[in-house]
Amino acid sequence: MEKRVGNVRWGIASLLSLGIIVNYLDRVNISVALTPLEKELGLSNFQTGLILSSFLWSYALLQLPVGAWLDRFGVRWLNRIGSFIWALATFMTGIVSGFGLILLSRILLGIGEAPVFPGASKATGYWFPIKERGLATSAFDAAAKFSSVIGAPLMAFVVAGHGWRAAFVVTGIINVVYAILYWIFYKDPCESKSLSEEEHRYIVEGGAQPEKVAPTNAVANFGFLLRQPKVWGLSLGFAAYNYSFYLFLTWLPGYLQKSLHMSVLKSGWYTIIPWIVATITDLVIGGVLVDALIARGYDATKVRKTIVTIGMLLGLAVIGAAFTTDATVATIWISIAIGGLAFAAPVAWSLPSIIAPKGTVGSVGSIMNLMGNLSGIVAPIVAGLVIDKTNSFAANFLIAGAILIVGILCFVFLLGRIEQIKMPGEGEKETVDESLVQTSKA
């Protein structure tokens, strides 16, 4: 029987997950409020696509500097500052009027939220041994899906009862509460007074990334990382996943309202079904199953690549939604697609803390997130253009399926063996590969 060493690390995982839920409420709110917002402002589908993607313009642009700042200054302060910026941006969206000012508010939101995902990935590397990294990562990644489960009906209820602006006021208040909680409770392991020496030793001996190790030359290190096939395989594969993810995140309520003629409130309830499936598969398959298979001695690279490949293949079920106008059938196809993509995502997010050279987890995570969010920028804009040109959503599902096939090839052939990349001069230094980490026994 394995000896208990404490649970402070899981408290940190819960805090990170709560932050992701709050983050994604800021992305769900505008999707649910889309139809009344469009009507009040007189927007075209193309302008709507610009608003839906504008958050990602600044978010993606800041990924590389954010990665360097995370490696240089740490997770704690960058996310503290960011949390108050994104709260301000959310309130602004509900107060201002006009296409330009809403666009500006969403760009500011992207600035505030830019450190969140690479920061969570880096914090997980600090706080968890490799054998628990799958579940720890899926905890914060599943939160992105679960946010739609609670956010879609909540925002639909608020919009239906109080108008679209109220949705941003409500989420703004939630943002402020979380910013205060994060400011008080997040600390790195070396700063935590609650962390016992025994739990700290368990984390470190289990292969956690070392703290306070910053690269001396961020530009040179980015140049080195961008020459690595592993980094490109991870980043391009994640970009293919993120295209479909953002297509659903930004346009699913609008698709249900426009193509299947649902009310705002009804579309909110239908929206939660695929996201419930995604939350469950993310945690159970992407987290618990991955860790369990590796703990039983299965090759870690094969486990992770197999799970990612199966998840992306299931994502191709999105194509089925292109050939139906029945709400139930469409929801089933979309649920299969999102469920598969959901359990591939935490595997991808666990990889920066495994393959990154010491001191560069934030940088690898930011490269991956940059590529993913460039894809996310394109998805809602392309969707809006396709709807304007065809008066149908069907072609968007076909485009998403084609991009997923490219992503599968990148994960399978470019990523290679999942092990730590050696920086120049490291020689034969031991790599960090969880298949070599021995399970501690009492």
Outline the secondary-structure elements:
Elements: H1 8-32, H2 34-41, H3 45-61, H4 63-73, H5 75-95, H6 99-113, H7 116-127, H8 133-162, H9 164-185, H10 197-205, H11 218-225, H12 229-258, H13 264-295, H14 300-315, H15 327-350, H16 352-355, H17 361-390, H18 394-414
Helix pairs in contact: 1-7, 1-8, 1-9, 1-12, 3-6, 3-17, 4-5, 4-17, 5-6, 5-7, 5-9, 7-8, 7-17, 8-9, 8-13, 8-15, 12-13, 12-15, 12-17, 12-18, 13-14, 13-15, 14-15, 14-18
What does this structure look like?
Its main location: membrane. It is found in: Cell membrane. The chain crosses the membrane at residues 7-25, 45-62, 83-109, 164-185, 231-252, 272-294, 306-324, 330-355, 367-387, 393-415. This protein has 442 residues and is an all-alpha fold. The protein has one domain: Growth Hormone, Chain: A (Up-down Bundle). The chain contains 18 helices and no strands. The protein has helices at 8-32, 34-41, 45-61, 63-73, 75-95, 99-113, 116-127, 133-162, 164-185, 197-205, 218-225, 229-258, 264-295, 300-315, 327-350, 352-355, 361-390, 394-414. Helix 5 runs antiparallel to helix 6 (99-113), helix 8 packs antiparallel against helix 9 and helix 14 (300-315) packs antiparallel against helix 15 (327-350). The longest helix is centred in the middle third of the chain and has 32 residues, at 264-295. Residues 428-442 have low confidence and may be disordered.
What key attributes describe this structure?
single chain, 442 residues, mainly alpha, Growth Hormone, Chain: A, 76% helix, globular, disordered C terminus
